[in-house]
Amino acid sequence: VHYPFVLTPLPYDYNALEPFIDEKTMHLHHDRHLKTYVDNLNAALKNYPEFQTWSLERLLKNVNWLPEDIKTPVKNNGGGVYNHEFYFNNMSAERDTQPSPELLEQIDRDFGSLDEFKQQFKKAALGVFGSGYAWLALDKNGKLVIKQTANQDTLIPLELCPVVVIDVWEHAYYLKNYNVRADYIDNWFHVVDWQKASVNYEKHTAIEKA
Ligand code: MN
Q1: Residue 204 — pLDDT band, cuts 50, 70, 90?
Q2: Which of 9, 117, 156, 187 would staple 111 via disulfide (CB 3.0–4.6 Å)?
């Protein structure tokens, strides 16, 4: 997948996450916010055919070596595309899914229990100052860690492998929850796709074992 990047449809209906995340928010978030990142990323690459064959991951990994005038637009808008696709793909129309036995075992090992993880994750998501994300990720030693990122920064420069992400920009919840981010996080826990998270986790651990 490379330039021109396209707006990937949601993997479920706009109202699929109701009543936890409302249909109008999903429309605005996907059709306007994500679309703007896609359009601006394409605009940044328009006059640079040499980078039009690069994948999004490759662009973000090498962002500091890009020409000065597209460095910041690619970092912000490419990050916006990458983060939002991850976020939308790790929610599900199914309610209260559960991690795989393997992922659950490591969550128990690294955080004590799933409930303890949820408390720590909620605290991290609440603690993002301004706009950003909270992630569950695997570090280079194969340990699960919770990480905050600001704006549209990604985990790519930190060499962390993403398992789950929550978008805590206000546009993700303001229409429904106003300024009460804690309510949005509690709602999000009902629609987070732990099956998808488990696939992400197993993909990364398989690479480490290879
Ligand atoms: Mn967002």
Answers
A1: confident
A2: 117
CA of 135 to the centre of ligand 1 (A): 14
Retrieve residue 205's tokens: 């651990």
Q: Calculate how far, in angstroms, residue 199's C-alpha sits from the geometric centre of ligand 1.
A: 23
Q: Identify the sign of the CA torsion 34, 69, 128, 163.
A: positive
Neighbours of ion ligand 1 (CB under 5 A): 167, 169
Q: How far is the CA of 126 from the centre of ligand 1 (A)?
A: 15
d(CA 176, CA 14): 15
Which tens digit of pLDDT belongs to each residue from 88-131? 999 999 999 999 999 999 999 999 999 999 999 999 999 999 99
